[in-house]
Amino acid sequence: MGYNFNWSAVSGGAPYVTLSSLGIAFNSVSIAKLDNPEKILIGFDEAECVLGVKPYEYESGVKPYEFSERVKNGWIRIGCRDFIKYLQSITGIDFSVSKRYVAKHDTNENILIVFVRDVSEVENAETDENPLG
Fold first, then answer.
1. pLDDT for position 12
2. Which residues neighbour 14 within 8 Å (Cβ) at sequence distance 6 or greater?
3. Within a domain: residue 8?
């Protein structure tokens, strides 16, 4: 048959990336999709309004973010208020209420992809689940 079943996929849930006025947060499933790297890169395609997150592989001329050491309660938070303000200004999306996106994982490139304008993938994060406050 050729299937490669992940027997914990249903109990683990979806790979969520949450955007709020404080920054970006990753749940345990999204962390696992990236193989829990020590550091990550966060990229933004402005024309497509898409975030990309990938493990840092010592590329030059880019700013990596500490990742694996920042896990708290199953989440990793990256503070980036200025970027979120910029994202809000170009999208018109109000991030004062957290927005939770289901991230896509490009297995060939090992990149988590977040389609910021794809409202079908967005949920307002509940206060008790909101990793950013």
1. 65
2. 29, 102
3. no
Structurally, the chain folds into a number of domains equal to 1
pLDDT digits (tens, 9 = 90+) for 55-81: 999 999 999 999 999 999 999 999 999
Is 2 within a domain? no
> How far is CA 72 from each of CA 35, 69, 109, 117, 119, rounded to the nearest angstrom?
17, 9, 27, 28, 28
The torsion angle over the Cα atoms of residues 82, 86, 87 and 89, rounded to 10 degrees, is 140
Least confident range of 2-11, 28-37, 63-72, 109-118? 2-11
Burial of 32 (0-12, 13-18, 19+ CB in 10 A): middle
